[in-house]
Amino acid sequence: MNVLIIDDDDEDKELFCEALQIVAPTFNCLTASSCQSAITLLSNTKAIPQFIFIDMHINGVSGIECLKSIKTLEDIHKATIIMYTGVMSPADRDECIALGANEILIKPTSFNLLGRALDLIVNAGNKDDQ
Predict the structure, then answer these.
(1) Is 130 within the bounds of a domain?
(2) For residue 76, what are the contacts with CB-CB under 8 A and spacing of at least 6?
(3) 17 inside domain
(4) 4-aspartylphosphate occurs at which residues (predicted)?
(5) What span, in angstroms and rounded, lies between the C-alpha atoms of 63 and 26?
(6) Which of 19, 34, 92, 111 has the highest Cβ tally under 10 A?
């Protein structure tokens, strides 16, 4: 299974992928540094990632605009989309949910907390099967 991280901060992408490998080692971590590169990647793949994390503050386009663009892609409804940021206003949260984001994640303040948050998100369905 694949997870896509859309973030222009290379360090954040690296931390997400490292934490993901600890909590869900069978997942492949794909990354994109811009919304356009994410759209290109998603348009050229047959396997839509199970989870897509979109940073709210991507250079060149807001996370909300990126979400709008991604939601137009074929088969994207198969993915769980999580918007993430350091701080989010209630209005932005409501807009993200209205546009089709499944979850909102406030960036955790430590690697361990990030791992716990990712574990709750990506392994939620799998724990019911055990």
Answers:
(1) no
(2) 42, 48, 70
(3) yes
(4) 55
(5) 27
(6) 19
Domain that holds residue 110: 2-123
Torsion angle of C-alpha atoms 75, 127, 15, 98, degrees rounded to 10: 40
- pTM here is 0.91
Strands 2-6 and 28-32 turn out to be: parallel
Q: How many domains does the chain have?
A: 1
Backbone angles phi, psi at 51, to 5 degrees: -130, 140
- Are 51 and 73 in contact by the 8 Å Cβ rule? The answer is no
CA distance 63 to 51: 15
Q: Which residues contact 121 (CB under 8 A, 6 or more apart)?
A: 51, 80, 82, 103, 105
Contact at 8 Å (CB) between 35 and 66? yes
Q: Which residue has the higher pLDDT, 130 or 107?
A: 107
Q: pLDDT band for position 130 (50/70/90)?
A: very low
Answer whether residue 129 is part of any domain.
Answer: no
